[in-house]
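Bit of a strange request maybe. I'm writing a small parser for structure token strings and I need a real example to test against, not something I typed by hand. Could someone generate the tokens for this chain?
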Amino acid sequence: MTTNMNILFRRMYRAKCDGILRYIKQFFVPVLFILFIIGCEQNEGIDPMQQSERLELNNDEIDLNRDVVEKNDTIEIRNEAGFPGGRIASTFDLVLVTEIPSPSVDGDLLQSTAVNLTCEKAIVSFNVQGDTYKGGIKVLNIEDNIKVTSYLQFKDADIHNVHFSEKEVYAATGTSNKVDDQTAVLEIFTLDGDKLNIENSSRIGLGSYAANCVIASEKSIYVTTGDNENSGGGIYKIGMDNRQIEASMDLHDARWVDICNQDLFVVQGTPGKYSVLDPDLSNLKNGISVKGMNIPESKSTIEIHGNMAFIAAGSAGVQIFNIVTSQLIGEIPVPDNTNNPDVLTNAVSYDNCLLFISNGAGGVYVAKVLTDVNKNATSCETELLGYLDFDSLASVNHIAFKGKYLFVAAGLEGIKIVKVIRN
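Reply from user aminoacidic:
Good idea to test on real output. This should exercise your parser:
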């Protein structure tokens, strides 16, 4: 009897184990297989770590996001006595959602310098203040959740500005590692989805001391280099396919460039102006004087939207021009309640009636643009709402606004990402 009972228990145990195994095979094995395939597809052909004598690339997302700080802080818009028309915004809310600290290179803390932004992706550039040449580029995916996907570290170059296309990243640099005896160098890297790759990179030497802005069209890359035109300052056209300088034009203190209807709009300083060039750089179509921008080696951006040019004009604040008539049609001054010489408008960014303004040590301001940018307007009506009240913000080097996100390049404080929620 005992023997029969043992046999019965062994059969029941074996049947139970067989059932569990069948369940594992039916459910867990397919799931593990799917996860394995997804992991292979995401990482196929992408080396998580790449290194050269002067570059170090990290594509490990777990490692890259360790120091990313998620926030949920409402940013209030404060009025100032210097702006009697300012008020608390009621048509949108601002929420600080992410902070990304500045990285270091061999013990030197970098500062964020510029942001290139679409609705799905952002790329941020970094450099070191002073005579040290070190920098970095961070790639962020912002389509669903904000995450850093790639970080490229430079041991011999300041990265002043970045631009990206679907498959490439373009970096405007100043470097100790000269190309054709030039310290102003354009660097090009492959972009595979959200990951950088340094294996087939290119370096093109340009005139002057540093490249300060880069933008790409379908067939060409355009780079501005600052300082005096006698030392190579101006704008350069590089072929997208041949990686060769195809044309250049000398321009004094060229600082930023934007493209509209194939025309190039280059903002210049000391003295301030913006120039309109054809895409081949063979013809200077127009040159329009702009107030401000009288401090050498300063940042001054330009954005073209519809028929309007929004220019960050230093001590003259925001200058708004009708690009059809070349007439000044609006302006927003810098705050007049401070004696700080570092309160200068160095960047502007517009999208869907909202204009964000970087005033350097004065922080970030926001205004409504009440005039349709697509009209051939003789005046542009704006309503300055006030400044963004961050808990900590020593200075702002650059801003970029697109869709639902505002990126603030806060120098040594890294990057602050603000979600713009329209009511």
